[in-house]
Amino acid sequence: MEELLLSQISEKFTTSTLQKMSAFYDNKKVSPPPGALFRAKTNNGTITAYHSGKVLFQGKSPIKEFERWASEQKENHEQQLSNRTHHSKYTPSHKIFTMSHIGSDESGTGDYFGPVTVCAVYVKKEYIEILKQIGIQDSKKITDKQIPLLAKQLIEMNIPYSSMVLDNPTYNKLQKQGWTQGKMKTMLHYHVIDKLLKKIRDEYFEGIVIDQFCQPTVFKKHLATENHSLHDKTYFITKAESYSIAVAAASVIARLRFLQEMERLSNLIDTPLLKGASKAVDEQIGHIIQSKGEEVLHEIAKVHFANTKKAKQLL
Ligand code: MN
Fold it and tell me: N or C: which end of the chain has fewer CB within 10 A?
């Protein structure tokens, strides 16, 4: 009857906790099943640890054994979280996301055709819930079909924003001058934030959150090369759109402007241009080169992308 499994708990632990467990249960060990690191039996039940870190607590009262390790597990988890986010003085505190703040994000950086667009949005505390309710979230989680309607709602609510489009001729020119895409993005974020700050004047905001695409020190270095410096209270965090409704709103408007430009460029060359930078894009580039000549790419594409070369090899 001892083998009857009344209940079980399964949890993943770190290597260091596994080592401690192994030592703790050393005199209770029995032969482990295939693939297991060790198995131990106590009055409370059976503990089976696997190489993956997974530990199975089974038997009469597995919770009693699990509880010995649960608090340690929590500490490890918190440590992992803080390791992952690389805290610095540029990391926003979480309370900023519940207060009036500015967020900025860009679109089009991975797409061969079309511009890079960027937007900064100022969201007052009172609007945070409303924006969530109308479905504002990371634009990557919204279909391109839904973007215009959501963006329209934002604009109709008079949410203060500022956006910019870096068109392809200018992008290509800067790229030839030695600007990296990182520097272009940095300057775009800087300018939309600057324009927005002038627009909202003395409205209170807790801080500015930029969806992090490079280390803050690199961002500052790019600004310095153009004689600018970081605006006060600027913070960086990756996946910012999942924390900040202002960044999420900015991602929606930036995406709208990207889509509008893609439509304009598609009309310009009488071809619905593809998004992204896939193999299908390479083929489309080939068709465009054959029908319109290579020169037109400067008007509609980020020509330094490897796609240009790949497309020419296909010809
Ligand atoms: Mn982003």
Answer: N
